[in-house]
Amino acid sequence: MSDVAASLIDTSDMIQLHRVFRDALGAAAPLVGSVLADDVERAELVGSYYFNVLELLHAHHDGEDELVWPRLIERSPADADTIRRVAGQHEGVLTSLRTAQARLAGWRADPQVDSGAHLAAALATLGAELAVHLDEEERVILPIASQHMTAPEWGELPAHGMQHFGGDKIWLILGLIQEQMSVEQIANMESHMPPPVRDFWTGAGRAQFRAFIAELRS
Ligand SMILES: [Fe+2]
Ligand SMILES: [Fe+2]
After folding, report:
1. 163 Cα–ligand 2 center, Å
2. How far is the CA of 28 from the centre of ligand 1 (A)?
3. Distance from residue 14's CA to the centre of ligand 1 (Å)
4. Ligand 1 centroid distance, CA of 100 (Å)
């Protein structure tokens, strides 16, 4: 193995996280459509799911803005224009994200057919716009990051995301991410959790996630 290959870091965890967004936004029409007018209870369930996923997207992009782009631009100047262009896609996504969040809040409080259709459309628009960004980030940026960041630097991303997560169901996020992982990756993730987080997850969080997600997908 060459020195370069030997020093490449594994960035595939970001592809797994991106799948959480792709899956959630791809399911918007059937999930929002599964809520009948005035069914506040189910709107709360579906609404809470999207509220938390959209907050996760904010946190994910903030982490990249803070921890990834500046390092890559500095360390790989030849790619700076490309990195800035892909980084700049966050701004366009943010506009769609805010629109979706505003519609979500209105629909969650008062679920009606019209507001549900508007919400589903906003989530689909966000999903389409985000997919362009995620595709390019995976294809173009991750190979640059794998060469120019260290494993500990890359490992700052999940902790940063947790600290800046503005949602109210961290167990939902942990469960959604674990759904994308192999059994070995899940065991590794749990072995690296701080003890209070691991105790919470194994003692209560995992069961809360399973109950929530079964109800959501029923
Ligand atoms: Fe990303
Ligand atoms: Fe991104």
Report:
1. 18
2. 20
3. 6
4. 19
Prediction pTM value = 0.95
Q: In tens digits, what is the pLDDT along the chain, a chain of 218 residues?
A: 444 455 899 999 999 999 999 999 999 999 999 999 999 999 999 999 999 999 999 999 999 999 999 999 999 999 999 999 999 999 999 999 999 999 999 999 999 999 999 999 999 999 999 999 999 999 999 999 999 999 999 999 999 999 999 999 999 999 999 999 999 999 999 998 889 999 999 999 999 999 999 999 99
Give the tokens for residue 33: 């459509």
Is there a contact between 204 and 172 (Cβ–Cβ < 8 Å)? no
Q: Which ligand is located closest to the Cα atom of residue 17?
A: 1
**CA 152 to centroid of ligand 2, rounded, Å:** 19
- Half-sphere exposure in the Cβ direction for 204 (13 Å, CA): 6
35: phi then psi, degrees, rounded to nearest 5: -95, 120
Would you list the domain boundaries of the chain? 3-167, 169-218
3-state class (DSSP) for residue 72: helix
Q: What is the second-level CATH architecture of the domain 3-167?
A: Up-down Bundle (1.20)
